[in-house]
Design brief:
Helices cover 35% and strands 30% of the residues. The protein has eleven helices and 14 strands. Helix 3 (91-101) packs across helix 4.
């Protein structure tokens, strides 16, 4: 188990991370999300022993990252956002170099190499110079380097950057498989990818944890028992639209947007009720032409924007 306790990091007067705490357990893939400057990458660098915290600590079982840095790093596979590769080296030679740095005996390298080449689909470029590989292959080479020593913990900062849709699916399946055996913490700017891959999501904003739970839990908590309904109608008077709540008290009118030939209406209501029949009958009584009426749900992007006020991740 990994335990992050009251972790803070200051750069001069700037508080990049503000006394955050969370725990990670094996058999779980956790997504770590944050907007530009939120403190996400700083947290990952502290967790890997790359930089030191201003206060607080990270515990790996009974060991802590400040006192047992080298020992803990042996158990971590880390893929940073800026993937460090030696472009003049052949893929095989680079992975052999990394295995030597990781202390893998020469007698065991062949087996380790074959494992990561297979898992990361690198057979086609295993004997190619890294500089001549595509961005997608370079990302997979970085992932293979993070996995070469079969670590207990994987920390992946933007692991699917530069991959095409087919490659993303392959890496997603690999990460989910690894998550059954290891502790996996990953970040990604692709919100749909996070939702499809992870078991749990932690969102950090301006150095503080603002959400922690499964995507379903975050969606339920954000909605607070409310459902949404989107309508598009024509021949509707705005006063009649606003009067609809008086006739149907269970609804709230969230937004009215008038277009050239129609009006969009966003409604909210308790998910335990279903006012659609009443809404339809009201529209008929006012002689509206209903062009669309569809229930809508919040997605992870809606929640992210609500909690951070931003739409870009880093």
């Amino acid at each position: 188990m990994i335990r992050v306790e009251n972790l803070s990091k200051n750069y001069g007067s700037v508080e990049a991370v503000k006394s955050i705490s969370f725990e990670l357990k094996g058999g779980q893939v956790v997504g770590f999300l944050g907007a530009n400057g939120a403190g996400k990458s700083t947290t990952l660098k502290i967790m890997t022993g790359y930089i030191s915290p201003s206060s607080g600590n990270v515990y790996y079982g009974e060991r802590n990252i400040q006192e047992d840095t080298s020992d803990i790093q042996k158990d971590i596979g880390y893929l940073p956002e800026l993937n460090p590769l030696y472009s003049e080296m052949i893929v095989h030679d680079y992975l052999k170099f990394i295995s030597e740095v990781r202390g893998i005996p020469t007698s065991e390298f062949k087996r380790s190499f074959q494992r990561v080449v297979e898992e990361c689909s690198l057979n086609a470029v295993a004997h190619r110079t890294i500089g001549n590989c595509s961005k997608g292959y370079k990302q997979r080479i970085g992932l293979a380097a993070a996995m070469i020593h079969d670590p207990k913990i994987l920390i992946l900062d933007e692991p699917v950057t530069g991959l095409d849709p087919n490659q993303i699916v392959e890496i997603r399946q690999l990460i989910k498989k690894l998550g059954k055996e290891k502790i996996v913490l990953m970040s990604s700017h692709i919100l749909q990818e996070i939702q499809a891959t992870v078991d749990r999501i932690i969102i950090i904003n301006e150095g503080s944890i603002v959400a922690d739970g499964s995507s379903e839990e975050l969606l339920d908590d954000s909605a607070k028992g409310k459902a949404q309904l989107k309508m598009e109608v024509s021949n509707a008077d705005e006063n009649d639209i606003r009067d609809m709540k008086a006739t149907i008290p269970s609804i709230d009118i969230a937004n009215i947007a008038k277009n050239e030939s129609s009006t969009e209406i966003n409604l909210e209501f308790l998910s335990s009720s279903d006012p659609r029949a009443d809404i339809f009958n009201y529209a008929v009584s006012k002689k509206w032409v209903i062009l669309e009426m569809v229930a809508s749900k919040q997605n992870l992007e809606d929640i992210f924007r609500k909690l951070t006020g931003k739409g870009n991740l880093s």
